[in-house]
Protein: Type II toxin-antitoxin system RelB/DinJ family antitoxin
Organism: Anaerovibrio slackiae
Amino acid sequence: MEKTATLNLHVNQEIKCKADAVLSELGLSMTSAKNIYLKQIALHRAIPFDLALPKAPSSINADIMSAQGLQSSIEKV
């Protein structure tokens, strides 16, 4: 029998609930999803998705943009 280790995670409750809903639709438990994630890290020796900071818009003139327009410009990037 394979030895196991215990992980204790602290996560935002709302994020956990949303993730549980997606995993349920996929037929996966949270434990299975965590195991898949860790196996992919071990297999590829890397995080299994790109990690990057969002790019800033090339130009924003906050003096003339509405708050909604400014937010929209930031979210597009």
The mean pLDDT is 86. The radius of gyration is 19 Å. Residues 13-76 form one domain. The first helix runs from residue 13 to 26.
